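[Meeting: bench + compute handoff]

Bench side (C.D.) handed over the final construct sequence. Compute side (W.E.) agreed to return the predicted structure before the next meeting so the bench team could plan truncations. Sequence as handed over:
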Amino acid sequence: MAVIEGTDTRAGWRLIAETLRPRRAGVIAGVVVGLLWSLTKVSIGLLLRQAVDKGIEADAMSPLLFWSVAIALVGCVSGVLTGVRRYLAFKEARLVEKRLRDRLFAHVQRLHFAFHDEAQAGDLMSRGNTDLQHLQNFVVMIPLTIANLMTVVGVTAILVVIDPFLAVLSLAALPLINLVAKRFGSRLFPSVMGIQRESAALATVVEESVAGVRVVKGFGAEEVVKTRLGGAADDVYRESMDAARIRATYLPALQLLPNVGLITVLGVGGHRVVDGSLSLGSLVAFNFYLILLIWPLRMLGMIIANGQRASAAAQRVAQVLSTDPVVVDAPGARALPEGRGEVRFEHVDFAYGASDEAADGAAPIPVLDGFDLHVEAGTSVALVGATGCGKSTVGRLIPRFYDVDAGRVSIDGLDVTQAKVSDLRRSVGIVFEDTFLFSDSIAANIAFADPEASQEAIERAARLSGAHDFIVALEHGYDSVIGERGYSLSGGQRQRIAIARAVLADPRVLILDDATSSVDPTKEHEIRDALGVVMEGRTTIVIAHRSATIALADRVVLLDEGRVVAAGTHDELLATNDRYREVLAAADDLADDAEVPV
């Protein structure tokens, strides 16, 4: 599936304009202050001209003092305006960054599971951090850029008024500066885009290396990771050096060309002062204005580079925002009807990637084929089968992590595609095989679905899942803070907290996807009875391999090649079905070979 692809450079600029629109009042205020700042800077040259002509040249102390004080006052006002302009610019830039980050995060949360199956966490983190920082830097530059532009326009007009001929000579390099700047921007953009692309790849390697550090150390693969990281870092270095070479080629020219005008004024203007056709004050003002032009013109390269980075960054952010969620509320979606969680699968076909086949040409991976299943309300069903037969997929289709390709899945008579997604997922609780806990207290992890839950409700859920005893044995009990992903706890402890989290949500349908897989078989009995209590009277789908866990269910369904091939109680299938015995034997052998921490 091709994810976060397919936007052009204009999409980036459209996103910038769209994001700035609600903040236009603040941005305009910053621009106005910037223009006033520009006016003060430009006016100093005129005051300087008066001080020289009417004070120094006329050998008059009083006018010299007056114009000197005027220059000092205007300079003070310019300093104050500089501070106000920077404050307004950074305020709006940070608000724009915050708004975009909130919008990007919310959109990523809405995107379907198939997107997250292929999107890399490091890449998304890069777009949500580095790229947004480039956008923030661009917004900061807006008031200064406009102020500098007006400075150039104002200074040019004043120079023409003072001496048109000398103005033409001094500004003759401007067209060449414009040409160099355009060429600089067009050559820099691909390199900037490459830097941000490779930086995202580097972030992915770092994120995976840190998140998977236990696997890395377990296989002694530090050198492998080091090599991967080195390769990604080399790619960033290569792209960065390409951009550096372009900057090294064009920036010196952009900085040198404005000085040509200064040399011209000193040569030609000096002669005109000597022959009396130009006043000394006008020559001093001319040089002041040309020096004043040098900084804005030198900044042209920085502005172009920032603009290109912002465009590339906005394009990458727009790529994510332009990805439409596939699993959304249908028109007229409604809450689930009252019921106790009856679940039906009717002639369901499903293949991973089927909806994206046309987009990227990849063949879909078929999983379910004409799958039928009826789970009566308040009963439990265990799904059993060889790896890849579709057991976990059945559990993922109920809360619409994915949509079926054909057929129908319903809860209490309502097709899940016609239910509100939020209501549906609150009604279905899942305990995954791969337990994920947040870096927070144990109580907060258990109450994740209901942060307002009482301590009594939290402890009740923990007791039902068999977690209470080990929790109270910790130094801070339920207030104990779990490390990243809960790795400060054993696998079995993490799984029990995950079960408690699902219990507290009080779903009408509970899905246990290998929920006891991380528990040592010798300790499994500690939570098996608790699971029996949790499952009692609640519609439960148990996806399991171990016989003892399977036996908790009222009924067992055997899957093979995406279909139900046998159904009955655990004892009935064990006595009558060879395939069922083969699957259990293979699972028990695997469990015997595994060494799982308590």
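W.E. noted at the follow-up: Strands lie at 343-352, 365-375, 380-384, 406-411, 414-415, 428-431, 509-513, 539-543, 555-560, 563-568. C.D. will use this when planning the next construct.
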